[in-house]
Amino acid sequence: MPRLPDVPVFPLPLVLLPGELLPLHIFEPRYRELVARCLAGPEPFCVVFEDDGGTREIGCLARDLTVLERLADGRLNVVVSGGEPVRLGPLDDDVHSYLSAEATVLEDDDETVDVGATEAALAAYRALLSDLGRDDSEPLSGQPRLSYALGARIDVGAQVGQALLESRSENARLVLIAEALEQGRHSLRVAAERERRAVRNGKVDPTAD
Fold first, then answer.
1. pTM, whole model, 2 decimals?
2. Do the beta carbons of residue 148 and residue 85 sit within 8 Å?
3. Is residue 50, in this structure, part of any structural domain at all?
């Protein structure tokens, strides 16, 4: 597996998935330096999920760095595209003003993608769009890694996103994303029922389905 010896690391309270577009507002001097390095290369940096539990070991390379706006005070608005999942080595805060690490590009298992899992994930996605009153304007059935494409379109939360990023099996990811999308539909139904009950002073409408 390819190794990158010195990858800039950008910890964030979110997960970047392969193929996902991520806008970022860059204001800290160390991250302005990181952006300058990556633009000059050009080279990727790694977005890695960080919360109260710490910084995760597996992140996603951020590629195609594009500056959308340069502000007079030096701040930047940029956008990146999710590249390959990587496993990070120990984080180094001595070499640069920002964190960096050796990164190993992770490859998926050699497996045949399950047609049933693919259809179930697509069905869950379309059903959620229908519940939201949105159209599937860009069909996804031809995507080579459908799980990532779905996760990039629907906010499934950082925990599910990280699980998708850490799995090396597309079939396992398809099951995971289908479950997350179904959970999203359930949450919508619960929210709608709470709203109906609030309107009726907490009483259930016996005529409702």
1. 0.88
2. no
3. yes
Residue 79 near residue 21, CB atoms below 8 Å:
yes
Q: Is residue 209 in some structural domain?
A: no
Q: Tokens 């925990």, residue?
A: 159
Alpha helix positions (H), the chain: 29-40, 115-132, 146-153, 158-166, 170-199
Q: What distance in Å separates the CA atoms of residue 119 and residue 103, rounded to the nearest whole number?
A: 34
Structure tokens at 101: 């690490």
Domain-located, residue 110: no
Q: Residue 151 corresponds to which tokens in the numbers above? A: 């996760």
Q: What is the CATH number of the domain that holds 39?
A: 2.30.130.40
Q: Provide the strand spans (E) within the chain.
A: 3-12, 21-26, 45-51, 54-55, 58-70, 76-88, 99-105
| Residue 182 covered by a domain | yes
Domain membership of residue 8 as a residue range: 3-105
- What is the C-alpha to C-alpha distance for residues 77 and 92, in angstroms, rounded to an integer? 26
Cα–Cα dist 43/23, whole Å: 17
CB neighbours of residue 26 within 10 Å: 21
Condensed to tens digits (0 to 9), the pLDDT of residues 112-153 reads 999 999 999 999 999 999 998 887 766 676 678 999 999 999
